[in-house]
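Lecture notes, unit on protein representations.

Consider one protein chain, 173 amino acids long.
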Amino acid sequence: MVKSLMKENQHKNGSVNDQEIAWSVASNVLDPEIPCVTIGELGILRDLELQDGKAIVSVSPTYSGCPAVLAIELAIEAALLKAGFKTSINRVLSPPWTTDWISEDGRNKLKDYGIAPPVKASSKMALFGNVEVKCPRCSSQDTEKLSEFGSTACKAQYRCNSCYEPFDYFKCI
């Protein structure tokens, strides 16, 4: 589909929309640990420039010790190569990624997947886990933290006291 899209956008001086196509391809790579959201929706795709036919991609990990960062970078490279772009990946650590960069679509997809999306960091207390977390299944705020760490280090394990379902909460970073 991407190659046909590229052919549709061909222009005598090359593709007018190569930048948009490359961005679309990269931003639609799924997060390997949370496959319901793309890296574009998570906000970790920081920049993409085309220089001499090469896609220079800037990506931020969700945190410096994220074990999925290499898998994400390789998936971006593979997707762009498949779409016909040579690729170079730059890991950007500053400014550090924040959960505030997750798009509204990404937050909705997390909730639909059964993961409570992070509370927007409107107060610094959210950074210390002092937040009211809504159950992604029944929307009750009567929840309790069971463990600081869930299925991955960026999530905490909660339980809803209304529907009694356990769920992950994507921690505010």
